[in-house]
Every structure is written in structure tokens, then in C-alpha cells.
Amino acid sequence: MREQWLEDLPIARVERLEPIHSGISNQVYKLTAAGRSYVLKHQRFSQNYDLNRAQEIRLQRQLADYGLAPEILYYDELRGLVLQPFIELPQLAHTELSHIDKIGISAKVSARIHDLKITLPDWSLEQRIDLYLRQIKVLDAMAANYYQKRLAPYRRLLQQPSEAAAFCHNDLAFNHIFVDANATSIQVIDWEYAGVGDRYFDFANTILLNQFTAAESDHFCRSYQAHSGIRIDRERLNPMLELTDLVHQLWFTLHHQLQDSMND
């Protein structure tokens, strides 16, 4: 992190800088200044992942108004810097709640997100997949061809109009949810893949990212219905789980390619 970037932040002089996460698309730091804690995110490789960062910031400001995401204190689009308050709540993954309660909370959060009235363009999973394929092909044509063949049986699923469109997070891992002991105060982070799309893709991401068993998936579906009044159709969910697992493999292939290119 460059010293000049820290000096330009609209806070008191930074006393402490601790790395929290270092990935390809984001580097995240915890800052301490004048007794207050902040999170500073450095966004990178946005085009490679088809991420509209300015739209992400506008979205997070809407979500902050709903009390579901931390406030945006500062955004430097040119440098890709985002400053937010540090969330003092524990991550759902690290609470003392039972695993079954954590699943219920993730279903509750999912239902709340899907019910939000957010102004955003529709999010195309097929367009995102095709961009990943083009990016992979630049460095490994054989890998791109392999994924093209594996994705072929799912093209009809990708192209059919969704009757389950909603505003979705699409990355709702337990460590992206912050919650108090009574699960009354909840905040969610990492909204870069959020958008208006098929809620079944969002369901599948939540199930796969948190590695739910079949029984845990059933509990998630029942809990979601209890909070939303909407029944999850397992016959529709199962092929989406297969497709989403393939999308994750595709994403990680691109991720590792970018990582290797940085190390060359």
C-alpha cells in the first residue's frame, strides 16, 4: 500500500495498517486512525472478472441505506480504493452458533436480499461465463476448449428466461455475513458479483460455497421458504448446482492464470 494513498484518505493519520486478505481481485487492509478502525479495499483486475466497480459502489450505498452493508466513506475510482468502517460484529463462520443455526441465518439473509428493491441492470450469467472463457483462451486455448465442451449441455439452462429473477448477492459465504449473538444485527460484505438475476444461481452459490450436505441443503430450502414464503423447487435447483459448480471451476482456472501471470 503506497504511503501517498494513505495520506490522501479523509481520516486522521493512519497509525496501524494490517493486511486482512490478499487476493487477485481485491487486497483488503484494516486501518487504525485516532482510535477508530476502518477497512480499506484495493480493487484490481476488474475487467478480467467483468466487475463494474462504480456500479458496485452505487449499490453498496443503497445497501448501506437499508442497513445491510457498511457505509462507503471514501471511493477513489482511479486508484481503486474503497474506505469503509470496520465491522465489529463477528463473521457468521466464527460465531458460537450451531451449524444448523448458521444455515438458517444464511437462508434468512438470502430471503432479505432477494426482497430488496434495488435499481440495477440485469446480470447475465451467460455473458459472465463467456467473458471468463475468452480470458482463459488468451493463455490456454486447450483449457478454454475443455470448458466450452463441458458447458455445452447447460447452454439451454443459461438462455431460458428466468421466472425467479431477484436481486442476488451471488457470493453468500458464511464469512461474508456478520451477525450479533441474537442474529438481530446483520451486515453483509463483498457485493462485487451482486445483481438482478436468477435466484436459483444464488441458492446454488450459497449451498456450494458453504459446502452444505444434502440434508443441510434441505434445511436451507425449508428455512428460506419460512422467511420468504417462496418454495425452492429441487428439480430446478439440482441442474443449477451442477452448472454453478462448473462456473466455480472456470473462475478458479481464470484466477490461477492471473496469479501465475503476476508471478512471471
Description:
- GO terms for molecular function: ethanolamine kinase activity.
- This is Aminoglycoside phosphotransferase domain-containing protein.
- The structure is a single chain.
- With 264 residues, the chain is of the alpha+beta class.
- It has two domains: 3-85, Phosphorylase Kinase, domain 1 (2-Layer Sandwich); 92-263, Alpha-Beta Complex (Aminoglycoside 3'-phosphotransferase, Chain: A, domain 2), CATH 3.90.1200.
- 46% of the residues lie in helices and 17% in strands.
- The protein is built from nine helices and nine strands.
- It has helices spanning 3-7, 53-65, 99-114, 125-139, 141-151, 155-159, 199-209, 214-228, 234-263, and strands spanning 16-22, 26-33, 36-43, 74-76, 81-85, 165-168, 177-179, 186-188, 195-198.
- Strands 1-2-3-5-4 form a five-stranded antiparallel beta sheet, with no helix packed on it. The chain has a two-stranded antiparallel sheet with strand order 6-9.
- β7 and β8 (186-188) form a beta hairpin.
- α3 (99-114) crosses α8 (214-228) and α7 packs across α9.
- It is globular, with a radius of gyration of 19 Å.
- The mean pLDDT is 92.
